Structures are given as C-alpha cells and as structure tokens.
Amino acid sequence: MAILKVAQLGHPILRQVAVPIPPEQIGTPEVQQLIADMSHTMHEYDGAGLAAPQVHVSVRLVILDLLDEERVLINPIITPLTDELVRTVEGCLSVAKMRAAVDRPAKIRLQALDERGEAVDLELEDFDAVVVQHECDHLDGILYVDRCDTTTLAFLDEYRRWGSLDTLAERMAEEE
Ligand code: NI
C-alpha cells in the first residue's frame, strides 16, 4: 500500500467533475489498489473521508467512516429528504488546517455501489449525512469552502483556541 499525495486547494483536479467507474471495472486490480491506497492515505492523515480527486484520480469514488465502519462508495447519488439544515464545522484534507461552519440538508438518501460492486441504499441523518455530502461534493469539483458561512472560516489553531465563530458571539453575549 502507498500513502498518496493529497491535492491542495488551488489544484485544478479538485475542480473537475469526476467520471463514473463502470461497474464491471470495480473488481480490477487498478480500482482495488486505488481503494487500498486511499484507505491507507485517509488513516495516515487522520481524515474522516477521502475522495479520489483529492489523490489526483478524477473518478467517482469516495472512502469514508460511516455508521462506525469504513465504507467505499462508487458512483454515489445523493437525494435530500428534508429542507431542514444541520450546521457542522467542517475541515478537509485538501484545505489544510482550516475549519468553517457549513449548513447542509439534515437527512439524505444515499445510493451507490460498494467495493464489491454491490448496491448501497441508505437513509442517513446529521453527521453521517454531512460527511457523505462533503465527500460526494468533491466528485463534482465542489469544496466545503464554496458552501460555508465565510464569517466562520478559521485557521485550525485559532479554531482550537476560540471555538467556532458562529457560537462565539452567543458565548460572549452569555458572559456579559
Ligand atoms: Ni474534503
């Protein structure tokens, strides 16, 4: 297994729309090797998920921790199931050492194929729904900084010191 280089914000591959993987190719050594290398890379950098374009391969494949296990999603389709939004502080291995608050649909349906080519069809809520949406956005060239509340953007050191800026105003009001 190899640790792959992670593309950083500004690399054009992060802005491309990735191509689907033909289902009959999922079992090939190339795809299986990519999955193994992405798993190794995600753990090396302690990420919650990783999309293939982040390792310079523009195909519709993501790997992520979901429902307490590592999952592979190939050619995923997301359908929002509610207008209700959930706000989460997100980070991304391709936007190193930053955090920001992002509002996303709180409940989704996820349809995809797994690493064996078998169908995945799940309804997900809250954090699980957020992680899937973040990773799948990468397949369409979208980064969380495109969707975030930009007034909450913070460097990781400052985020750790001060907390999320969307709650800071509330906390300061309480302390007065
Ligand atoms: Ni990301």
Main sheet characteristics: 5 strands, antiparallel
CATH structural architecture: Alpha-Beta Complex
Query: In what range is the share of β-strand residues?
Result: 25-35%
How many individual β-strands?
8
Shape: globular
Number of helices: 5
Radius of gyration: 17 Å
Distance N terminus to C terminus? 54 Å
Q: What percent of residues adopt helix (DSSP H or I)?
A: 25-40%
Strand order of the largest sheet: 1-2-3-6-7
The CATH C-level class name: Alpha Beta
Unreliable segments of 5+ consecutive residues: none
SSE string? HEEEEEEEHHEHH
Which structural class should the secondary elements be placed in? alpha+beta
Q: What is the overall pLDDT average?
A: 94
- The CATH superfamily name is Peptide deformylase
Looking at the structure, the CATH topology is Peptide Deformylase
Number of domains: 1
Hetero groups:
nickel (II) ion
